[in-house]
Amino acid sequence: MTVYAPPPATxxxxxxxxxxxxxxxxxxxxxxxxxxxxxxxxxxxxxVQETHPEALIVHRLDMSTSGLLILARGEAxxxxxxxxxxxxxxDKRYIAVVQGIVEQDVGEIDLPMICDWPNRxxxxxxxxxxxxxxxxxxxxxxxxxxxxxxxxxxxxxxxSHQLRVHMMSLGHPILGDDLYGGIAYERAERLLLHAAQxxxxxxxxxxPQQFECAPPF
Length: 217
Hints:
The protein is mainly beta. Helices cover about 10% and strands about 35% of the residues.
């Protein structure tokens, strides 16, 4: 069994705050919300609530994924952001480094997904029972020397492990992926997946908001 060893809290992860929401940069290896058991109490939301007790979660990142996470300030804003996510009104872009050379400059991965229940938390593609799942990708850089490709990923839907499963299904697993990476798992010390950009309309003013955070890899 893997022991949960979150990175130390070396400083605030809050990048931006106003009366409606906070933007945070979650480090890889830290849960977004507490897991089961006292050993999994340390998480992003608890760390932020030490200085912003009104902060509430509205979406999550996998423990292994780093990057931008939106937190609502209070229950009314939490309901508003939850509605935005249900209506797919939040634009999210990720940066990943994947195994192999991706040939197409841009493309879509449209593969229905469902939980692989006997092997949870793994997810899988299932054309009979899976829920519609769509990812768009764009090649940023190809590296023939290392046989890797840096890509921008846009999850149109928000299924659990969607980007990881879709890239694996395309034949290009994300480096450092302990669940779906195969040989790509051993090529990086962490999952090379980072939530680099979020954009949405401000819940009070309605003005467009966009936040970016460069990946640490």
